[in-house]
């Protein structure tokens, strides 16, 4: 089809330069070689094909008409947490994929999937091949609760649970046991609410989403009827946002079950709150007061002022059957209030424990500075500390919080800083850098098979085809080998 | 973090309001539009004599840096559509493509214009609450349509169209690369 379009253009009386360059880019992409783009412009490498990577690429391509940007991604498939983190029942949030697709298809951009930076190729090798390297590899680890019993069967990180229902290959064997009545989630951010909602949502609704088939089947057989979402501090410190709370309140066939004691003094504090916090708190109080239909089969609730201290194992010591919580009191108020121990404890029976206390970045390469305390790459406005030509954007730069729009602004900032450095001569653009050609050749000698964007397009087409037969937008292949086979 | 709010002002510099709570606008009838499914239902604008879908209104977007982008929008066109259809150079505007899943189309309106906007839904307010630099006259652009207001002079038989000027406190602009149209 692309060849036909090119022929028509030549035949036509007006040749759009845009069309011609798209065609040449298509041909170049098919061949896997950077085609007609200039070899004398800046070459930038981006490590990580999620929102941070693509938004950074987008800005760079716009700001410099001579820049070539290559995005390297560990998985064969792009888009990071937009694909593997955003809940299946939030498809609108995934619309940003359209803008990332446009970026990837840009004639001066190329995507290289199935490349594990740090293992298949080092950061130093990338820095030699490019004028600048941007680290946008996000946070693939999670914060641990640091309590005994955390490794027992029945205890999962939210990151893994979310990865499981979203088809992340490394979580496909998770097989969470959903035969218990009560699940306890530690943490009260939006990820915690996503997990709670997926656990309690009607299967009729889930089966029309892109949730993986195996997760859908597991949830269809789930006996979980009660989900408690536990936080260290109080209602005024809750980290989730109102949209997600409203979705919990509106869940069919569920009622809210909270403790009035947790809300003492909250009504009085309302009037001084900024609007977003005020509305969120009001909705929470309304849910706590009204509860919902008593006949509802399922229930959920927040539990405040509680920190996990131990996972309780069953008699055989082989799996989690409960969690021990320490009761806290609050010192101070507002966002900076601190939880202090009181010494009181409370045990909650449950068979599923999900810790949702934060994702965490990990170091990618010994050559890159890393701050283990904050779990980020130390940087000044996106310029990696003490390392010229190395930048970072997204969660690996600021920490693992924020929505896509937050990452978008942050990535735009890093791109701007990089462009400034180019223009100020801090990056030596007079040196010719080989870019993708050198790296692709290197990877080939190492037996690494890269996946180009056009090959991702084959994978996504196959996913949509499989999904159609199941009445879903897509059905994701669960392992890397299968992805590579389709590509 | 860079700002991502667009400020509206009606042909003069805007002043950021610091009042404590959101003011709801009166539900005046004027062209309704629904982003996404794109149905235009005609309302009666009490201030205009007649409204046709092809009527145009000038919309000014003012960047925080002072740069101004002016376009002629069709009445009934959502402000997100205006940005997309005219390919306006506004960074990251409308990331979720008008589905109330983000706040990147946050606009700050001048009070007079703000008061004429349609009622705000819980869903819009939920997302608006997350916008950077939220003000009392903020709304999400994907939920607002261009409309005309008229001022008739005694001597003048023809209605005067008052332009709406929306300013942006976003410091960056980008050419919207997507060719996807909302409708």
TrEMBL record, chain A:
Binding of NADP(+), residues: 188-191, 232-233, 244, 402
Ranges where the FAD/NAD(P)-binding domain occurs: 43-199
Entry keyword Glycoprotein: no
Cofactor dependency: FAD
Record-level Gene Ontology MF annotations: oxidoreductase activity
Residue sites binding FAD per the record: 52, 73, 81, 117, 395, 402-404
Keywords, in A-Z order: Electron transport, FAD, Flavoprotein, Mitochondrion, NADP, Oxidoreductase, Transit peptide, Transport
Compartment list: Mitochondrion
Pathway: Steroid metabolism; cholesterol metabolism
Record's catalysed reaction(s): 2 reduced [adrenodoxin] + NADP(+) + H(+) = 2 oxidized [adrenodoxin] + NADPH
Principal cellular location given in the protein's record: mitochondrion
Alphabetized SUPFAM superfamilies for the sequence: Nucleotide-binding domain
A matching Pfam family: Pyr_redox_2
Location of region: Disordered: 463-487
GO cellular component terms listed in the entry, alphabetical order: mitochondrion
Keyword Flavoprotein: yes
InterPro entries: FAD/NAD-bd_sf, FAD/NAD-binding_dom, Ferredox_Rdtase, Ferredox_Rdtase_adrenod
EC main group: oxidoreductase
UniProt-listed Enzyme Commission number(s): 1.18.1.6
Family indicated by similarity: Belongs to the ferredoxin--NADP reductase type 1 family.
UniProt protein name: NADPH:adrenodoxin oxidoreductase, mitochondrial
Natural source organism: Cyprinus carpio carpio
UniProtKB/TrEMBL annotation, chain B:
Gene Ontology MF annotations: 2 iron, 2 sulfur cluster binding; electron transfer activity; metal ion binding
Superkingdom of origin organism: Eukaryota
Gene3D superfamilies named in the record: 3.10.20.30
Protein name from the UniProt record: Ferredoxin 1
DNA damage in keyword set: no
Cofactors named for this entry: [2Fe-2S] cluster
Biological processes per GO annotation: P450-containing electron transport chain
One Pfam family here: Fer2
PANTHER family (UniProt xref): ADRENODOXIN, FERREDOXIN/ADRENODOXIN
Biased composition (Basic and acidic residues): 170-183
UniProt region (Disordered), positions on chain: 164-183
Keywords attached to this entry: 2Fe-2S, Iron, Iron-sulfur, Metal-binding
InterPro entries tied to this protein: 2Fe-2S_ferredoxin-like_sf (IPR036010), 2Fe-2S_ferredoxin-type (IPR001041), Adrenodoxin-like (IPR001055), Adrenodoxin_Fe-S_BS (IPR018298), Beta-grasp_dom_sf (IPR012675)
Chain ranges of the 2Fe-2S ferredoxin-type domain: 64-143
